[in-house]
Design goal:
One of its GO terms (molecular function) is ATP hydrolysis activity. This protein is α/β, with parallel strands linked by helices. It has 30 helices and 14 strands. 34% of the residues are buried.
Length: 657
């Protein structure tokens, strides 16, 4: 018998040699090479696998174990079959330890015989993992337990095809060459950048250079689905096993998820895998991370992918337009590139949405128009800002606002600062001369109702941007540190909202700084300094509005680019407001004396709007048209609301005049 077994072993060895020379993929050999299995490990695996190939082995194992219910091999049986010497058999028990190659890669499952109470360790039964059995039998279907969380890419654009600055491109090309060192320490790259900044594209590009597949793991979904027991679950090891079987690099997308408090064990599990990887691994997230020795001997590189500057965005938009067969010359490419600080991913998604909007608007031609682009860009901007602020829908144009001519010119100048930002900063070279933020911040000052919110809405409409109104009186908290947290949330969301921020009641925070007499005064000044810092760093548009210009801190006001004063309207301006507030379709008495209303009552535009609307409701209930009696009655109510005293007889006289 021994001689026959030796002859069979010799034949198998010869057949294996010939197959390897012919380039045949021997899966057991590949498995052993990938996971460091020796001959004894592979024999253990084959003994366990036999019942998956031929059910007659069940009877054989039951016979050998003298138990008809034990149709799979136990550790004791495997040791008896493969190891002859008693001392060697004791040492061989370590091959079934949790950290041994077969168990660490989850190739073998150990389970107890339910008919036996507290069986010894060697009495545990072996079962080959279903995915490993399928792999050895020629199947490559991913493990169903982790397939929903893994996205496979077999190819991608090369590094040269990515829109990156020259320094970043050269650095990545060098990393691609460094990652080819087969016997060197693993190379771990932390790809940091906002969503759509090209983190996945960079990982795919580097794998393209190395002709290697890439597995992108959705950590956010994995953590959400696995729940609090993720660290003890096999997900991380199973994902790593799939990548090794496919010869793929791993990109852990949503790495920030593991940096949250309470996720330390999951972070260790992930880092344990990247530390032992061969070649390159990627950690992709939005937040900075420094490994601080957590990766051992692995080489670590932090690659920061920033939002592209305006010239790069223009190039991206033009390429996206060409891809969708849109006529770039007919589109406001410079405008959208200047106003929307989009990542490459957002630009591609926005152009796709614009194409869909064009097809809906004009099914026959489906030509993308500039308005489609602006609508698409607003749709792809961060919409969560609406949970922190009130979105203002623009309903007015330049013809609707009544202000002195020089104030209108100021407002148009503000728009020009956004429209021509690319020309001034990039084409004319001012970008190199200014170290500060390229954003805009300015103050609207004037009594309530003089048109500050309307002006902000008109600017938003002119620029094609959304407008969000933040009431600072609601943001300020009496609890120390809470105001800064509230402001941080607003600005963090606004960075990707591509919107205009309108801070109402700014004097509630930016009042004259007081002398520090106690800790509350000191923290109040810290809040002012914090908001000032965030406004200066913000690259978008921030408008601060106050009803009381004299209450604003002058040192702060001097640091704003514009200050626009909204005066109380004079008689001529009030008359323009009165004539413009009543819709053409509104029935009115020909005897309406709007000139008298403008002369007699000192009202702001907001007051006049309230009076006109109240008069319309009075008229709807009382007659078929708006009469002077309705206007006077509504004005009286408005004066009462304002706390102004006017004699009853004065109102009666005006109503009868």
């Amino acid at each position: 018998m021994a001689g026959r077994l030796a002859e069979l072993a010799r034949r198998n060895s010869e057949r294996k040699r010939l197959a390897l020379e012919a380039g045949t993929d021997l899966r057991l050999e590949r498995l052993a090479r990938l996971f460091g299995l020796d001959e004894t490990d592979t024999d253990i695996l084959l003994v366990s696998l036999a019942v998956e190939l031929d059910t007659r082995y069940e009877k054989l194992y039951a016979y050998l174990q003298d138990d008809v219910t034990r149709t799979r091999p136990s550790i004791d049986l495997v040791l008896a079959l493969l190891v002859q010497e008693p001392l060697q058999r004791i040492a061989a028990r370590e091959r079934f330890a949790a950290d041994a190659p077969l168990r660490a890669a989850r190739m073998l499952d150990l389970f107890d015989d339910p008919a036996r109470v507290a069986p010894p360790f060697i009495g545990k039964t072996l079962r080959t993992d279903a995915r490993i059995a399928a792999f050895l039998l020629g199947a490559d279907r991913p493990d169903a337990r982790v397939a929903p969380y893994v996205e496979r890419h077999d190819d991608g654009p090369g590094i040269d095809a990515l829109l990156l600055d020259d320094d970043t491109r050269r650095g990545l090309a060098g990393l691609a060459r460094a990652g080819d060192a087969a016997n060197g320490p693993p190379l771990v790259m932390h790809l940091q950048g906002p969503r759509g900044s090209g983190r996945r594209a960079v990982a795919r590009g580097l794998c393209h250079e190395r002709r290697q597949a890439l597995f992108i793991v959705d950590l956010e979904r994995l953590v959400a689905d696995a729940g609090p027991e993720l660290a003890s679950a096999p997900h991380f090891e199973l994902i790593d096993r799939e990548a090794r079987l496919a010869g793929a690099a791993l990109c852990w997308r949503g790495f920030d998820t593991l940096l949250a408090a309470g996720r330390e064990s999951e972070l260790r599990a992930c880092l344990r895998i990247v530390k032992r990887a061969r070649g390159m691994s990627f950690l992709a997230g939005e937040s900075p991370w420094f490994e601080s020795g957590a990766l051992g001997d692995a080489r670590f590189v932090n690659v920061r992918l920033q939002r592209p500057a305006v010239p790069a965005r223009i190039d991206l938009w033009q390429k996206a337009a060409a891809k969708h067969e849109a006529e770039a010359a007919q589109l406001d490419i410079v405008g959208v590139a200047t106003k929307f600080r989009f990542t490459p991913g957002q630009i591609e998604a926005s152009m796709h949405t614009a194409a869909s909007l064009a097809a809906w608007r004009d099914p026959e031609h489906a030509r993308i128009a500039s308005q489609d682009l602006y609508d698409a860009c607003r749709a792809h901007s961060n919409r969560t800002l609406s949970t922190l602020a009130q979105k203002v829908t623009p309903r007015f144009g330049w013809n609707d606002i009544v202000l002195p001519a020089d104030r209108i010119r100021q407002l148009r100048e503000i728009c020009n600062h956004i429209k021509y930002r690319n020309r001034v900063f990039n084409e004319w070279g001012f970008d190199a001369k200014l170290a500060s933020s390229k954003g805009l911040s300015f103050l609207f000052a004037g009594p309530s109702g003089t048109g500050k919110t309307m002006a902000a809405a008109i600017i938003a409409a002119e620029l094609g941007l959304d407008l969000y109104k933040i009431d600072l009186s609601l943001v300020i908290s009496k609890f120390i540190g809470e105001t800064e947290k509230n402001l941080a949330k607003i600005f963090d969301e606004a960075e990707t909202a591509n919107s205009i921020l309108f801070f109402d009641e700014a004097d509630s925070l930016f009042g004259k700084r007081s002398e520090v007499k106690d800790s509350h005064d000191r923290y109040a000044n810290i809040e002012v300094g914090y908001l000032l810092q965030r406004i200066e760093e913000y690259e978008g548009i921030a408008i601060l509005a106050t009803n009381f210009r004299r209450n604003m801190d002058e040192a702060f006001v001097r640091r704003l680019q514009f200050t626009v004063d909204f005066p109380l309207p004079g008689e001529a301006d009030r008359y323009r407001m009165w004539t413009g507030i009543l819709p053409e379709s509104t029935p009115r008495d020909p005897a309406l004396d709007l000139a008298m209303m403008a002369k007699r009552y000192t009202l702001t535009g907001g007051n006049i709007r309230n009076v006109a609307l109240a008069a319309a409701f009075l008229a709807a209930d009382d007659s078929d048209m708006i009469r002077m009696t309705h206007l006077i009655a509504a004005t009286q109510r408005e004066y009462q609301k304002m706390g102004k005293l006017v004699g009853e007889r004065d109102f009666e006289a005006d109503a009868s005049s």
